[in-house]
Design goal:
about 260 residues; alpha/beta; Rossmann fold; 2 domains; elongated; LytTR_DNA-bd_dom; phosphorelay response regulator activity; CheY-like_superfamily; phosphoprotein; DNA binding
Length: about 260
């Protein structure tokens, strides 16, 4: 099987390649592309692979633009941290739609689906429709929230479940995932993106710099002008203040 990976995060591309080769050792990874521009140029100048793994959010825009600018004559498995693009993904030559961080079991199922697709005489678009209807019948929710994150730790990649995250912190131009053990990892999402991805019953956007897990809230006390002062576990340097406009919603969230 000859494949191409389109992914703008090098460690995510490397991790995906490693899992694919572990599942299908004879796979030939022809290229790892990082942008729409690079992908359009590559597909215009090279023989197309058997299968493409494609992230949706790339450094220079939405990867669906690739398929508008050039014809990709092979099936695609989309990989993304967002689930709102599922319908649009199935309009392309899509075999499957995997939410990041990608687990080995989900990846194996997607590859098997591709292999089964090769054995059927159904046109790809009809097969996609059947897949979509099947997923709907199983009750897959378009509002399903992110349950785990893939982070870089030294030279390796590890997965951290959302329940182990104490809070997300914007600091010095990056967003950090901080675990209850106090470990910090850089994540490639903004707080605005994370706010949409996380379960609102568990996580609350306290201010511009912080999204907190309800289990990380150690102490809440009144502050000036209707604001609240927040103490977290693990502790965080500096005062964590919740504005008066958010104080009521925060109290409701805590069920105070």
């Amino acid at each position: 099987m000859k494949i191409v990976i389109i992914e703008d995060e090098a460690f995510a591309a490397d991790s995906l390649e490693s899992m694919i080769l572990e599942l299908r050792p004879k796979t030939d990874v022809l290229e790892k592309l990082e942008s729409i521009e690079e992908a359009v140029e590559w597909f215009s100048m090279n023989q197309h692979p058997d299968l493409v793994f494609c992230d949706i959010h790339l450094s220079d825009g939405n990867s669906f633009e690739i398929f508008r600018q050039t014809e990709v004559k092979c099936p695609v498995i989309f990989t993304t941290a967002y689930n709102e693009y599922a319908i649009e993904a199935f309009k392309v030559n899509s075999v499957d739609y995997l939410l990041k961080p990608i687990g080995k079991e989900e990846l194996a199922k997607a590859i098997r689906k591709y292999e089964e697709l090769k054995q059927t005489n159904l046109p790809l678009e009809i097969q996609n429709l059947q897949n979509l209807l099947h997923d709907a019948a199983k009750g897959r929710s378009q509002t399903e929230k992110k349950s785990r994150f893939m982070v870089k730790s030294g030279q390796s990649i590890k997965t951290i479940s959302s329940e182990k995250v104490a809070y997300f912190l914007a600091e010095e131009g990056v967003v950090l995932l901080v675990t209850f053990e106090g470990n910090r990892f850089v994540v490639s999402y903004t707080l605005d993106q994370l706010e949409e991805m996380l379960d609102p019953k568990t996580f609350f956007r306290t201010n511009r710099q912080l999204i907190a897990n309800i289990r990380s809230v150690k102490e809440v006390s009144p502050y000036f002008k209707g604001r609240l002062h927040l103490v977290l576990n693990p502790s965080l340097a500096g005062d964590q203040i919740i504005s008066s406009s958010k104080a009521s919603a925060f109290k409701d969230w805590l069920d105070l």
